[in-house]
Amino acid sequence: MKALPNILTGSRLVMALFMFVAFAAAAGAVPYYANRLEPEAQFALQRWAVYAFIVAAITDFFDGWLARKLDAETVWGAILDPIGDKVLVCGAILGLMSLGPQPMVVLPCGLILFREFTVSALREVGAGKGVKLPVTLLAKWKTTIQLTALAMELIVAAWGAFSLPDGTVLREMFELGAHGMLWLAAVITLITGYQYWEQTRKALSS
After folding, report:
1. Looking at residue 99, what is its pLDDT?
2. What CA–CA distances, in Å, run from 51 to 23, 115, 133, 150, 165?
3. What letters, b where the CB count within 10 A reaches 16 and e where it falls short, cover 45-60?
4. For residue 195, which of 122, 125, 88 has the smallest C-alpha distance?
5. What is the C-alpha separation between 21 and 191, in angstroms, rounded?
6. Cα dist. 156→23, 78, 96, 141, 171 in Å?
């Protein structure tokens, strides 16, 4: 049972890879399938990619919760968990871009990617200097809001794949909510990035 949290974390990486490949195949980026897929097959791939993302996002909550509940926190879990989060977020953003022009999400997604890679670099440099950057409560909320926002944006971008009514108030409201949530995620992402930057700067200058 104590291996279950790490299994969930590892499965998140696998589902993130599946999601990205499914989106790529639906967009015609996989060589063998380029120009071979019927629209229904493309929609099916998009649906399964979104489903994989949602399930993977749910595991992000349960692996940490189970690790604490079962007293099964491990070094590998601590390493794989943030990697799984970043791979999932980056893969979802790339998948979102593969679904077609998304002008309203380009800037917030770019800011999120900028922060994620910057903090990863800070952690790497800090680790070499013996500086640890513990995950803050706001950073945990950041991940939750990011994943929720990206799930909503993926559903909006793949709206037709779910046979949802187009040109309705439902879509307009859902799209507005998705964009608002994504911008909220971007703002919180930048705030936590600044906090980590300040922690690293103070630790290295002391």
Report:
1. 85
2. 12, 26, 32, 12, 19
3. bbbbbbebbbebbebb
4. 122
5. 32
6. 14, 33, 10, 23, 8
Collect all residues with Cβ–Cβ distance below 8 Å to 162 and sequence separation of at least 6. 47, 155
CATH number, residue 80: 1.20.120
Q: Which of 19, 18, 35 is nearest to 27 (CA)?
A: 35
The token duo for 189 is: 């992402």
Q: Where are the alpha helices (DSSP H) in the chain?
A: 4-26, 39-69, 75-98, 103-128, 137-157, 169-205
Q: How many domains does the chain divide into?
A: 1
Which domain covers residue 187, as residue numbers?
4-205
Cα separation values, 74 from 6, 135, 150, Å: 8, 16, 29
Of the candidates 14, 153, 143, 43, the one whose C-alpha atom is nearest the C-alpha of residue 94 is 153
How confident is the prediction along the chain (206 residues), in pLDDT tens digits per residue?
667 777 888 888 899 999 999 998 888 777 766 667 788 888 999 999 999 999 999 988 877 777 677 776 666 666 777 788 888 999 999 999 988 888 889 999 999 999 989 988 888 777 777 767 777 788 889 989 999 999 999 999 999 899 888 878 888 999 999 999 999 999 999 999 998 888 888 877 76
* Global pTM value: 0.89
Query: Taking Cα atoms as reference points, which of 80, 67, 79, 75 lies closest to residue 9?
Result: 80
What pLDDT sits at residue 147? 94
